[in-house]
Amino acid sequence: MRMRSTWIGAGLLGLALAAPGTGAADAPVSRGEEVYAARCKECHESGDERVPQRDTLARKTPAEIVAAMTGGPMTPMAEGLTPEDKQAVAAFLTGH
Ligand code: HEC
Known about the structure:
Helix content: 55-70%
Oligomer: single chain
CATH class of the domain at 28-94: Mainly Alpha
Bound molecules: heme C
């Protein structure tokens, strides 16, 4: 009896550990939030009127945000980000 419940416990633990990798639908948004906080937030939530603030960025399309980072004015700020990272930030900001 004891052995049996230990094995069941190990099986559930295995499932729980595997879950983050399988939650593909959530992954881009959380990665986007991470990138945003690390690379963008400092300026885009600064309250500085010369910088479009987060609510302004949220009204853009994801494609416009990606374009700003890919040849647009935000290219230097997005240096080193992968296309997936840029897409993830755009999705995080716009909510789609
Ligand atoms: C050093 C401060 C700074 C950082 C860091 C920064 N931005 Fe910006 N961002 C600005 C400023 C200033 C503008 C306005 C630029 C302009 O109008 O030419 C701007 C404009 C934008 C725009 C609008 C561009 C347009 O074409 O109108 C987008 C979208 C944007 N930023 C996204 C981002 C994203 C995403 C990140 C993180 C990868 C980021 N920014 C990081 C300062 C910053």
